[in-house]
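On clarity, I found the account of how folds are encoded harder to follow than it need be. Since the whole study asks how a given chain folds, the encoding of that fold should be made plain. The format is easy to grasp once an entry is in front of the reader. For illustration, here is how one protein appears when written out as sequence plus structure tokens.
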Amino acid sequence: MSTQPHTYAADDPETALKYAIQHIKGDRVQIVEGVIDAVSPSWDHENAADVIREQIGPTMRKLSCRAGSGDLDLPGSPNWYVPDLAVVPKDLAKGAGALFPDQTLLIVEVTSDSNGDNDRIVKRRRYAEYGAPLYLLVDRQERSCTLFSEPGELGYTKADGPRPFGTPVRLPEPFELDLDTSEF
């Protein structure tokens, strides 16, 4: 039995790097500004994402959306992200490989001690640059949440927060709900 090799343009380092990380067996990895980063969140980290998923679940069903931590490609950059949670239209989630940030309705990143500045600075800037409409930063080190909206080439133009854990965070259209942050 022979397998067909996957091809990519050898003179295109971005494509080669993104191809390579998609074929690492057993690990979920992302690329942040050209640096390969293994994704292995703690249970506390996962808890925050799951609390959000549970709260937005009924609204997602009404909107025909799905939530998960699927791959997000940022073409033309050395970035390939695995968000802690992204909400996307159901039709895009079926059979999709990587999606683009502007195809999401909401992206959530939960900080870790080891790479919190990636979520606070780098990903916030890149998600805005690539048109993600809403970016929720759950900062476990600062014990706060910030919702960024109105993306532009230079970053998000609107920020609601930081709000201390325990203070509700309003998710605007299309969600129109107050997120309870007391369980983070």
